[in-house]
Amino acid sequence: MSNNKKKKLVLAYYLYKKKQKEIEKRKRSSWVHPILLEREKYGAFQTLFTQLEEDETKFYNYFRMKKETFQLLLTAIYDKIRHEDTDMRKSISPAERLAVTIRYLAAGNTFSDLHYSFRMGIKTISCIVQEVFEALWETLSPIYMKLPSEDEWLTIAKNFETNANFPHCLGAIDGKHIRIIKPEESGSMFFNYKHYFSIVLMAVVDTNYNFVFIDVGAYGKECDSAVFKETEFWKRIVGDKLNIPRPKQLPGAGSELPYVFVADEAFALHQHVLRPYGGHQLDSIKKIFNYRLTRARRYVECAFGILSNKWRILHRPLNVSTDTAVNIVKTCCLLQNIIHKVEGIANNATDNASSHMVSTLCHLPRSHSTRGNVTANMIRNKYAEYFMSPVGRVPWQNQHA
C-alpha cells in the first residue's frame, strides 16, 4: 500500500472518530438521569409539601416559617419566578422554586444535597435560588427594609427608651464576618484577622431585632469603622439625608441632644454615633455610661444570633460565588424582618437559639481611628451626665460602676 493511501486511511479514521465523539457528546448533553426524570413522583416537594401543610409544626420545622408567611412570599413574587411550559417539558412551579430556596437557607444543605432530595439538576437549583433571591429582594425589601421616615425613627427611639432605658437611640450598629470559600483570583482581600475568608455584614438593628439597614459584601480584611464609613447609610448621616429627627430635650431634663446610634469601641465617635469610653481607669460616670450603652447595643448582637440560628446556611462557609453569597445574606436578613413583622418576635427571637443568643458570626477587627471631634465628645458627656441624674438613672446601674 502506498504512503498516500495510508495517509488517506489514517485521515479518514481520524475524521470518523471525531464524528463519533461529537455524536456521543450530543447524546450526553441531552441525556437526563433517571433520578431526575422521576421528580414528579418522588421529589421532596411532591412527596412532602402537601403533608407539611397539614401539620403546622412540621411545616415550621422544615421551612423555618409558618405556612401563611410562605404563602405571602409566594404571592408577592409569583409572577417573577413563573416560567411557561414548553413542548419539551413542564416548567418547575413557583411554589417548588420557593420551597427549594427556603429549604436551602433553612437547612444549610448544599446544592448536591438538594439535587438528590428534590430530584433537580445542580445547575437548575443554582439558577432557581439566584432567581428567587433577586425576586424577593426586588419585591419585598422596599416594604420590609425601607429607610424609616422621621415618625418611624421616633417610634424606634421610643422603643429603645422603653426596652433599653436609652432615650433618643435610633438603632444599634455592628458588623460580622460571613464565612466563604476563597473566591478565585482574590488574593488576600477576603482573608480576615481570624485566618479565614469572609465578607462583611454591616447592620443597624432596632429593638425588635429587625434590620433597619444592611450593607453586605465588603472585604473580610477590613475593620468595622472602615466598612461603616463606606456604606450608603454613613454617607446619608454625614449628608443629613437620613430623616433623623431634630435634636430634642431628653425626658425630664432641659438639655437638647441629637438622636444617636449606639456602637461598640470599634466605631469612631460622631455626633450621631455613640461609642463607649475607652481605657481601664474609668470613673463611675463613664462606667455607668458604658453599661447603659451596652444594654442598648445588645439588640444587634441578639439579631445576629437569631439570624444565624434560624438560617443554618450561615453555619458553614458559603461555597458559592461572591455575588451569590451577598444575595444569600441579604435574603436571610430580609426574611428575618418579614417573619418578625408577620409572625411576631415572641417565638422567633428564641427559635433554636441559646439563652445568650450565641452567634456563629464573628466580630470584625477593631479600628484605631476612634477619636471624635469636640462636639461629639461633648454630646457623649451630656448623655453620661443625664444617666447619673435623678430623671435619667435606673435603680440597678450602680452595680455596674
TrEMBL record:
Residues 52-136 form the DUF8040 domain. Residues 173-337 form the DDE Tnp4 domain. Its cofactor is a divalent metal cation. Keywords: Hydrolase, Metal-binding, Nuclease, Nucleus. GO terms for molecular function: hydrolase activity; metal ion binding; nuclease activity. Transmembrane segments: none annotated. PANTHER family: NUCLEASE HARBI1-LIKE PROTEIN, PTHR22930. This is DDE Tnp4 domain-containing protein.
